[in-house]
Design brief:
492 residues, alpha/beta, Aspartate Aminotransferase, domain 1, 4-stranded antiparallel β-sheet, binds pyridoxal-5'-phosphate
Length: 492
C-alpha cells in the first residue's frame, strides 16, 4: 500500500458545508492538534471486534478470549510505538485522553517519594501537564524557555540544570512536553532526561503533540540515563477518536506502590479484612472494565503509523510545514510565534499566528465561514505560554485596567490562531488557509462590518447562522437509520 493510499484512509475528508457566501465546499481540516480525524482501517478493526464483543479478563468463552487477546495486543502496540522494553515498561490505558494518565502519574509519583516535594514543569505546557502537578506534587517550579518573546524557543537546559542544583534532593520529577500544542516547538526530552537522572529525578514526557508527527523512542541512543521514565499521549490525537489516554511507564515507578485506582480486575484476592493486589502489569494499574473497543481502535491506528513509518510521516510533514511557515513569514501583516530558526529550534506541524489589527476570534471565524478552513483560536489550554509569547504586544496595547471594557479588550487580543496538520493534510488545505489569510488581510474592514463581537471575544455573523443541529442532528440521523431498518429488515 502506498503512502498516498494511507493518506486517503480517513473518515471525513470529503465532508462539505454550506458557507456564508452560499457555496457548498469541502472542509479543510487544520485542527489536528485538538483531535485528528479517524483512520478508517483502524475503525474497521474496532467494528469487526464488536461482532465478538465481550468483557476482558477471561480466556474462557471464545468471545472473552478474543477480547482479552485484542486488548493485550493494543497494549503491545503502545509499547512498540515508543520502543519500550516490555520487561521494564508497561502501557496503561486511562480516561479519554492524556489528562487522566497525567493526573494519575502526578498522584502516584507524589505518593512514591513524598520527601521530594518539587516538580519542575516547563513554561510551555498544556494545562494537563501543569495543573495535576500543581495539585499533587507539592511545589511546581516553572522552567523558562530559550530566546525572547515572541520568538521563544524550547526548554532552557541551563535553567533546568540551575533548578536541579537549587532544589537538590527535592526534585521528584521533571514534566515536559515532547512538542508544544501551540507552536509545535520540539523539546530535547532525552537531554532533559539525562540532566534529571543525574539528580535522581524522573522525567514525565507529554508526547500528545509529537507521536502523530514524528518518532519518539524511550531512549534515543540506548543509554540508560537518557531513557524517559513515563511517556503519555492521547489516542484521539493519533487518529483514533473514542480511544483512551495512554501512559507508557517504567515499571519500577509503580512496583511496590499501591495503584492509584482500585476495583475489579486488579486484585489476586479480596477478604473482608483486606485485599491482595495482582503483581501483573498492566492489570494492576487498570481497575474496572476497560474501553476495549477504543483501545483496539487505537492499537490498530498505532500499527498503521508504524507500517507507514514515523520517519516517513515526519519527513513528509516537514516539507509541508516549511512551505507553510515560509509563506506566512513572507506575508506582511502576519506574526508567527516561536523561534523562527528551524535549525536551532525544530518544530512539528502546528503553527500559531496572528494578523495585524485583526482579533484572533474574527480571523478563525472568517476562515471557517468563508473559506471552510477549520482552525482553532484562543490560548489552547496553555495560558501561561501564550501570554508569554504575546507579552510584547499585550504591553503595547496599553490598556486602561479601569476601563469598563478592559477585560473584553484583553480577551479579544489575548490569543492566537492555530493551524495544525495531520497525515491527511494536502497542498490544497494549506492553499485554502493561505488564500483565506490573504483575503482577510486585503479586506479587514469588510469582514469587521459583517460580525458582532460578544464580551467573551467570540464573533457572530450578522446574517449567516449555521447551527450545529442544522449541520448534524443525532436524533434525525438515528430516525433515518431506524426507518431504514424497518423498511428493509437489514441489520444496521
Ligand atoms: C500537549 C497536550 N497535552 C495534553 C493535552 C490534553 O489532552 P486530552 O484533552 O486528550 O486529555 C493536550 C490536548 O490538547 C495537548 O495538546
Amino acid at each position: 500500500m502506498s503512502f498516498d493510499d494511507f493518506r486517503r484512509d480517513f473518515i471525513g475528508l470529503d465532508t462539505r458545508y454550506r458557507l456564508a457566501d452560499g457555496r457548498l465546499a469541502r472542509r479543510h481540516y487544520l485542527d489536528s492538534a485538538a483531535s485528528t480525524l479517524a483512520l478508517r482501517s483502524a475503525r474497521h478493526v474496532a467494528d469487526e471486534l464488536l461482532r465478538h464483543y465481550a468483557n476482558t479478563h477471561s480466556d474462557l468463552h471464545f468471545s472473552a478470549r478474543i477480547a482479552s487477546h485484542a486488548y493485550a495486543w493494543a497494549h503491545g502496540q503502545a509499547l512498540e510505538l515508543v520502543r519500550a522494553d516490555p520487561d521494564r515498561y508497561t502501557a496503561c490505558f486511562a480516561g479519554s485522553g492524556c489528562t487522566a494518565p497525567l493526573n494519575r502519574l502526578a498522584r502516584t509519583l507524589a505518593m512514591r517519594r513524598p520527601e521530594r516535594d518539587v516538580a519542575l514543569v516547563s513554561l510551555m505546557e498544556h494545562h494537563a501537564n501543569d495543573l495535576p502537578h500543581r495539585k499533587h506534587a507539592g511545589q511546581v517550579v516553572h522552567i523558562p524557555l530559550t530566546g525572547a518573546s515572541p520568538a521563544l524557543g524550547a526548554v532552557d537546559l541551563a535553567a533546568l540544570e540551575r533548578f536541579l542544583e537549587q532544589y537538590r534532593g527535592r526534585v521528584n520529577y521533571v514534566a515536559v512536553s515532547a512538542a508544544s500544542n501551540v507552536t509545535g516547538i520540539v523539546n530535547p526530552v532525552h537531554d532533559i532526561a539525562a540532566l534529571a537522572h543525574a539528580h535522581d529525578a524522573w522525567v514525565v514526557v507529554d508526547a500528545s503533540q509529537r507521536l502523530a508527527h514524528a518518532p519518539l523512542a524511550i531512549s534515543d541512543t540506548g543509554a540508560a540515563e537518557r531513557e524517559l521514565d513515563a511517556v503519555v499521549f492521547s489516542g484521539h490525537k493519533l487518529y483514533a477518536p473514542g480511544s483512551p489516554g495512554v501512559a507508557v511507564m517504567r515499571r519500577a515507578l509503580l512496583e511496590g506502590c499501591e495503584p492509584d485506582e482500585v476495583g475489579g480486575g486488579m486484585v489476586e484476592d479480596v477478604y473482608p479484612s483486606g485485599y491482595r493486589l495482582s503483581a501483573r502489569f498492566p492489570d494492576r494499574e487498570e481497575a474496572g472494565t476497560p474501553n476495549l473497543v477504543g483501545a483496539v481502535q487505537l492499537g490498530a491506528a498505532l500499527s498503521v503509523l508504524q507500517r507507514v513509518g514515523m520517519q516517513r510521516i515526519h519527513a513528509t510533514e516537514q516539507e509541508r510545514l516549511r512551505y507553510l511557515l515560509a509563506e506566512l513569514s513572507a506575508m506582511p501583516g502576519v506574526r508567527v510565534y516561536g523561534d523562527p530558526d528551524p535549525e536551532r529550534t525544530p518544530r512539528l506541524g502546528t503553527v500559531a499566528f496572528n494578523l495585524n489589527g485583526l482579533d484572533h476570534g474574527l480571523v478563525a471565524t472568517v476562515l471557517n465561514d468563508y473559506h471552510n478552513v477549520a482552525v482553532r483560536n484562543g490560548c489552547f489550554c496553555a495560558h501561561p505560554y501564550v501570554r508569554e509569547l504575546l507579552k510584547p504586544e499585550l504591553w503595547a496595547l496599553d490598556l486602561d485596567p479601569d476601563a469598563d471594557d478592559a477585560a473584553t479588550s484583553l480577551k479579544r487580543r489575548q490569543g492566537m490562531v492555530r493551524a495544525s496538520l495531520g497525515l491527511y493534510t494536502q497542498d490544497d488545505d494549506i492553499a485554502a488557509l493561505l488564500a483565506g489569510i490573504r483575503d482577510l488581510l486585503a479586506r479587514p474592514g469588510h469582514y469587521r462590518t459583517l460580525y458582532d463581537a460578544d464580551t467573551d471575544g467570540n464573533f457572530r455573523h450578522r446574517t449567516f447562522n449555521a447551527a450545529a443541529k442544522a449541520l448534524f442532528d443525532p436524533e434525525a440521523t438515528l430516525d433515518r437509520a431506524l426507518a431504514r431498518l424497518s423498511a428493509t429488515d437489514d441489520v444496521l
